[in-house]
Amino acid sequence: MPVDYRGQSYSRIKKDCVSKGVLFEDPEFPASSKSLYFSKVDNDVVWMRPRFWRFGETVEVVVDDRLPTKNGKLIFLHSKQKNEFWSALLEKAYAK
């Protein structure tokens, strides 16, 4: 069983969000300049959830963070940086 990162339990967070009918907002990585820069303040940044345009409407796609690997390497789309996964998560959302 995985260890919770900074006390954040996926199952507890999911249950809480479902019961309240809200989307998860991560207090460990708030949608603000302090999550992007060490000391810079940029009030022009707009935080958006990943969305796709499908059949004339915007679709919000939710994916988990499990990615397919073989011999310890991502099977499909991957970054040159071995600890960077955004491209694989975007591909997973698109494939879904």
UniProtKB/TrEMBL annotation:
GO molecular function, one term: calcium-dependent cysteine-type endopeptidase activity
UniProt-listed InterPro entries: Calpain_cysteine_protease (IPR022684), Papain-like_cys_pep_sf (IPR038765), Peptidase_C2_calpain_cat (IPR001300)
Ranges where the Calpain catalytic domain occurs: 51-96
GO biological process entries: proteolysis
Taxonomy, superkingdom: Eukaryota
GO CC aspect terms: cytoplasm
Keyword entries, A-Z: Hydrolase, Protease, Thiol protease
Homology family: Belongs to the peptidase C2 family.
Annotated protein name in UniProt: Calpain-9
Native species: Elysia marginata
